[in-house]
Amino acid sequence: MDRPEFVKERRQIAQDRMNTLFAPTYDEDWGSAISPSHREMLAKFLGLCPPDGLILDAACGTGKYFHAILESGRRVFGIDQAEAMLEKAQAKFPEVPLANIGMQEISVTGEYDAIICMDAMEYVSPEDWPLVLNNFHRALKQDGWLYLTSEIPGEGAVDEALKEGQVLGYPVVPGESVHKGGYHYYPTREQVQNWLAGAGFEIVEQSEGDEYWHLLTRRKNI
């Protein structure tokens, strides 16, 4: 299996797992309570958005963050590549417009005042990180805001995952995990900072909590 085929396959597997394995019980397992660190940064993020602004929730899942956004007076548009997750979101929030597309397929220009991408970038390959961030930059209005998270792996997990992937014969790169048939990618801090800068984002505030690196960034004009 060559690298492009591997990346394509892993993305499809992640989508299938969300639709069949996680969607049926996602709200019961993960989709209700917002962790303290996410809630704190989300509140800061929302406070920076225009009072009636339109926010894109990229990889919105079952709409975990819709209530907080709507309660703040902002509008939200949700996208996700997993149709079953969107069906759950639509049942809970029939008033919220949704689209079944992935972050790699975002094509609009200057549409949103702000974007959140919560607990989802770990499913994006290193090849697609720049693509997704460039899509975010293009989709935002001038001086728009982006709040994203990057999962923090456990100590030694990255090295162990690389060895496991190599034993299985996959063309994995450092940071990738194919444990239990799924896919996660854990980039280094330097990689994320460089990709953000290259896509035209400035990190305004950052924090760590609940196994995630939280990044509040602002779109620069490039």
Structural features, described:
By secondary structure, the protein is of the alpha/beta class. It has one domain: Vaccinia Virus protein VP39 (Rossmann fold), CATH 3.40.50. Helix content is 39%, strand content 23%. It contains 8 helices and 9 strands. It has helices at 3-22, 26-29, 36-48, 66-71, 83-92, 129-139, 157-167, 189-199; strands spanning 54-58, 75-79, 98-99, 112-117, 140-151, 176-177, 184-185, 201-209, 212-219. Strand 1, helix 4 (66-71) and strand 2 form a beta-alpha-beta unit. Helix 6 packs parallel to helix 8 (189-199). It is globular.
Question: Can you describe this structure in just a few lines?
Answer:
The chain has helices spanning 3-22, 26-29, 36-48, 66-71, 83-92, 129-139, 157-167, 189-199, and strands at 54-58, 75-79, 98-99, 112-117, 140-151, 176-177, 184-185, 201-209, 212-219. With 222 residues, the protein is of the alpha/beta class. 39% of the residues are buried.
